[in-house]
Amino acid sequence: MGKPVTGARETTSGVTPAIRLRHPVEDDHPLLVAVVDEWWGGRRVRASLPRLWLQHFTGTSVVAQRDAGGTPVGFVIGFVSPDHPHLAYLHLIGVAPGHRRKGVGRTLVERWAEVVRARGASRATTIAWPGDPAGLAFLRAVGFAVDAGPGTRALYGTAAHTDWNREGDDQAVLHREL
Ligand SMILES: CC(C)(COP(=O)(O)OP(=O)(O)OC[C@H]1O[C@@H](n2cnc3c(N)ncnc32)[C@H](O)[C@@H]1OP(=O)(O)O)[C@@H](O)C(=O)NCCC(=O)NCCS
Predict the structure, then answer these.
(1) pTM here?
(2) CB 39 near ligand 1, within 6 Å
(3) Which of 62, 115, 66, 117 is nearest to 92 (CA)?
(4) Quick one: which atom of ligand 1 is closest to the CA of 41?
(5) Is the pLDDT of residue 8 over 80?
(6) Are 37 and 43 contacting, i.e. CB atoms less than 8 angstroms apart?
(7) pLDDT at 47
(8) What number of other Cβ atoms are within 10 A of residue 54's Cβ?
(9) How many angstroms does the Cα of residue 63 sit away from the middle of ligand 1?
(10) CA 105 to ligand 1 centroid distance, Å
(11) How far is the CA of 138 from the centre of ligand 1 (A)?
(12) pLDDT single digits (tens) 106-151
């Protein structure tokens, strides 16, 4: 995955520079963990990004950067489920605030989808906080649909599960075909 990929489209202000996509390496961990809380608008996301993700899941994760030696401007971390090999799980996706709405997030998801599809997955799943309209809008825009099936209730206007990871943790579950 070393070759540069033109991931972004033209914007009204001109042509968006190409972004390079690559698999992360363990050395990316301190860089990413240092920025994720800011990228998520102050939410404590760093607890969801222990080093093990950059040790054991790099082959099913993708980093975007503007130039060869540059710092990441976006990343997606996920895996193909060992228990359900047809299913890929998207754990985290983030794009640096200064690089948003230029197609970087969509490009990362589509490359991630290619990677996990090549490993046998035909469906993807993820979770999102139902009170995050921007995150949900993005996930819908890249093909995910909210599960409104049994066990869900309307929370913040979205079908979601209560107490998903722990008491008080509301989460919408989303799926996408690959
Ligand atoms: C969500 C996030 C990854 C989107 O990254 P991005 O590079 O800006 O996304 P893209 O430019 O590829 O957007 C693709 C589409 O998603 C939708 N979208 C993206 N951001 C959106 C927002 N803030 N509000 C509404 N829709 C949005 C739009 O339909 C967009 O297409 P458009 O620009 O042609 O309208 C980025 O805002 C981010 O890192 N947010 C903080 C972390 C986070 O919330 N992660 C997702 C958790 S579920």
Answers:
(1) 0.92
(2) yes
(3) 62
(4) 41
(5) no
(6) yes
(7) 96
(8) 23
(9) 16
(10) 6
(11) 4
(12) 999 999 999 999 999 999 999 999 999 999 999 999 999 999 999 9
Q: Minimal CA–CA distance to 105: which of 158, 146, 144, 154?
A: 144
The CATH number assigned to the domain with range 1-121 reads: 3.40.630.30
Q: Could you tell me if the CB of 95 is within 6 A of ligand 1?
A: yes
Among 121, 114, 112, smallest CA distance to 91 is for 112
Domain spans in the chain, listed from the N-terminal domain onward: 1-121, 125-178
Q: Is 40 in the pocket of ligand 1 (CB under 6 A)?
A: yes
Task: Decide: 97 in ligand 1 pocket, CB within 6 A.
Answer: no
Whether the pLDDT of residue 87 is over 60: the answer is yes
User: What would the mean pLDDT of 55-70 be, rounded to a whole number?
Assistant: 93
CA distance 6 to 171: 33
